[in-house]
């Protein structure tokens, strides 16, 4: 039931932003999410590597909007689903620039601009019952934390971020098969003020010898 509701929610997003004419249609499955990248890996590097599976329509390493530094994850869009699936099965845990990457399916909606995402996220929250009305603003008490050291744990982050206020939950996202850290996490605060303070003070801070990146997220991203 949960999977069905999530699928419906994702389709509704795509309908809202114009990628689908009808939310009843299945969203495209030709986009891969690639994380645990080496900071030196570029768009061109990934395009060359992934194009062995088929035509790559676009390939983007996501970067810090201020510094231009890689946030160590990317989106790779293929011309067709078959090529995307082949890359998914063959590229996970492959070594690129001395880093073993993680590959998963994504949706084109993940690359949309922030102003359109806000409306879409609110609609999801309405669908799953977290908001009575999609016109209401979704909560802003969740942080997305990436570029983590693989050794950093939930407890480590909770101790560090709790200096800004009560942390309701803290989760380092892990590979469902190996249990290895995917080097990003979600930190949920009890209130928005604490979340905002952590956002302004924790970006680019050194944790376990890695400078982390912090951005606002939404609870639905979890």
TrEMBL record:
First-listed, main subcellular location of the protein, grouped into a coarse class: nucleus
E.C. code: 5.2.1.8
Principal EC category: isomerase
InterPro entries tied to this protein: CRIP, Nucleotide-bd_a/b_plait_sf, RBD_domain_sf, RRM_dom
Catalytic activity, reaction form: [protein]-peptidylproline (omega=180) = [protein]-peptidylproline (omega=0)
Highest taxon, organism lineage: Eukaryota
Pfam families tied to this protein: RRM_1
Coiled coil: none
Start and end residues of each RRM domain: 30-108, 141-219
Record keyword RNA-binding present: yes
Entry's Gene Ontology cellular component terms: nucleus
GO molecular function annotations of the record: peptidyl-prolyl cis-trans isomerase activity; RNA binding
UniProt subcellular location: Nucleus
Keyword set, alphabetical order: Isomerase, Nucleus, RNA-binding, Rotamase
Functional summary from the UniProt entry: PPIases accelerate the folding of proteins. It catalyzes the cis-trans isomerization of proline imidic peptide bonds in oligopeptides.
Protein name stated in the entry: peptidylprolyl isomerase
């Amino acid at each position: 039931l949960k999977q069905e509701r999530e699928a419906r929610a994702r389709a509704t997003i795509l309908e809202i932003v114009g990628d689908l004419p009808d939310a009843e249609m299945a969203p495209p499955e030709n986009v891969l999410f690639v994380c645990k990248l080496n900071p030196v890996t570029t768009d061109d590097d990934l395009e060359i590597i992934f194009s062995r599976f088929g035509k790559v329509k676009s390939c983007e390493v996501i970067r810090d909007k201020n510094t231009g530094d890689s946030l160590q994850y990317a989106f790779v869009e293929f011309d067709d689903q078959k090529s995307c699936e082949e890359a998914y099965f063959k590229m996970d845990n492959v070594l690129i620039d001395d880093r073993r990457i993680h590959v998963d399916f994504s949706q084109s909606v993940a690359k949309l601009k922030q102003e359109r995402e806000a409306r879409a996220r609110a609609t999801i929250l309405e669908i799953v019952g977290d908001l009575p009305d999609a016109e209401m603003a979704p909560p802003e008490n969740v942080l997305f934390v990436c570029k983590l050291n693989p050794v950093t744990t939930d407890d480590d982050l909770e101790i560090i971020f709790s200096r800004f206020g009560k942390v309701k939950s803290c989760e380092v996202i892990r590979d469902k098969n190996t249990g290895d850290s995917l080097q990003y996490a979600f930190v949920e605060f009890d209130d928005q003020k604490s979340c905002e303070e952590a956002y302004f003070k924790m970006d680019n801070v050194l944790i376990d010898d890695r400078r982390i990146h912090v951005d606002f997220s939404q609870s639905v991203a979890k």
